Amino acid sequence: MSEPKSSAPMPGRRLLLQGSAAMAAGLAMPAVLRAQDAGPLRIGHLTPRTGFLGPMGEYAVLGVTMAVEEVNAAGGVLGRKIELLTEDSVNPQTASTKAQRMVERDKVHALVGEISSASGLAIAQVANRTKTLFMQTGCNSDELRGKSCNRYMFHLEACNTMYVRTIGQALLRDGMVKGKKWMAFTADYAFGHDLFKQTRKFMDEHGGVFVSNDMLPTDATEFSASLLKIRQQKPDLVISNLAGNQTTNFTKQYHEFDIDVPFAGADMNMTSIWGAGKAGFSGVWPIIWTHQVDAPSAKDFVARFQKRWNRLPGNQAVNDYLAIKILAEAMTKTKSIEPDKIISYLESDVKFDLLRARPGYFRPWDHQLVYEMYTVMPNPDKNAGKFDFMTTSAPVPGPSESLEVLAPTQEENMCKFA
C-alpha cells in the first residue's frame, strides 16, 4: 500500500524565476556580497530525486516548496520574494558541481537540503569555501557534526547517535540488549557505515553481543540470502542499519519470510513505512517525526500539507519545510542576509517551533538542532485507519529530560570550526 498521491504537479526546477544571473565573482567572496540586495532571495535546494533515496527526496521537494509559497504569500523576507532553485543531487560529485554552480552562477543566498551523507559532505565543502549557509536536512552521519563540521553548515536532521539512543531506550526497556545476540544488516555507504559504528558503540556500552554485520549494496532489492542467514544463525534480535528503498524492501521481505526473530532498526522514514504497507511493516524503529505527533502546530501543518498536496507529510518534508522557515525567521530578526549575522542568531540559543510539543534549538558548538524524537511500531488495533497501521510513541526524551541527552557530547564527537 502506498500513500495517497497528489493530483497537483510536482514543482519544477525554479519558482518565481526573475531576472538573470550576474557576472560570476570570486568564490572566496561571501554569497551575500555577490548577490547584493537587488531582486529575489535565491535559495538553492539539492536533494536526491532518483535512486534509492528518491522517494524521500520527493517529499523534501514538497516540503521546501510549500514553505517558500507560504513565506512569499506572507510578503517574503525583508520585502523580497524567495526564488527556489531545486536540483537532483544524484551523487557526491554531481552534488558538489551543482552546489558550486548555484553559488557561482545563480548567486544563491543559501543552500538547503540533501539526504545522502556523502553528498552532504561534498556540498558542505562548497559552502565552507564560498562562505554560503548550508541548512542540511537529511544527512545523518555523526562525522558531519564532528571532524567534518564547518561554521556554515547547520543540521536539521538528527545524527546517527540520536537515532541509536532513541531506539536504544526502547530496547533497554524491553530487555533486548544486555546479553542478547544481535545480527546487523547495514547499507554499504557512508551513512550506513557510521550508523553501524554508533549502533555497535551503544551495544558494547550496554552489554549486547554482535553475532555478525553484513554490508548490503544500496541498489539491492532482493534479500532472500540475508533472511535465510537469519534463520540459520538464530540471533535474539535483527537490527537494520539500512536506508531508503533498502529499508522498505527488507522490511516487507522479512514479514513475507515469516521470520520469528524480533526485528528493530536504527533509522526509519515514513516513505519506508508506507512502502512496506500494513501487511509488511514490522519491528520497532526510531524516527524524527510522523503525522501522528500530538502537538497543535504539527496537526495544523498536517492539515495544510494535505490541502496543498493531497497526501500526508513525511518526516523529510518537515525538515526541508523547517529549513526555509528558520532561514526566513533569522533573516527577518537580524534584518540581514549576511551569513555571519544569521549564524550568530542561530547560535544564540533561540528556540524554534519544530512542529512538536517542545521547541528546539541549535547547539552553538556543532550546529546540531536538538528536538524530541519518537519510536514507531505496528498498530495492534486491526481496525486502525489505512494510514494509521503504525503507532507513534510519546516523545523521547521525556518532558522532564534535557533535549540533549540523545545527542553526542563534545567529548564524544569533537567539532572545531576553522
Explain this structure.
This protein has 418 residues and is an alpha/beta fold. The chain folds into two domains: 14-158 and 294-370, Rossmann fold (3-Layer(aba) Sandwich); 161-287 and 373-405, 3-Layer(aba) Sandwich (Rossmann fold). 38% of the residues lie in helices and 16% in strands. It contains twelve helices and 15 strands. The strands form four sheets. A six-stranded mixed sheet has the order 1-3-2-4-5-6, with helices on both faces. The longest helix is centred in the N-terminal third of the chain and has 20 residues, at 54-73. It is globular, with a radius of gyration of 21 Å. The termini are far apart.
Key descriptive features of the protein:
six-stranded mixed beta sheet; 2 domains; Rossmann fold; globular; alpha/beta; 418 residues; 12 helices; single chain; 38% helix; four-stranded parallel beta sheet; disordered N terminus
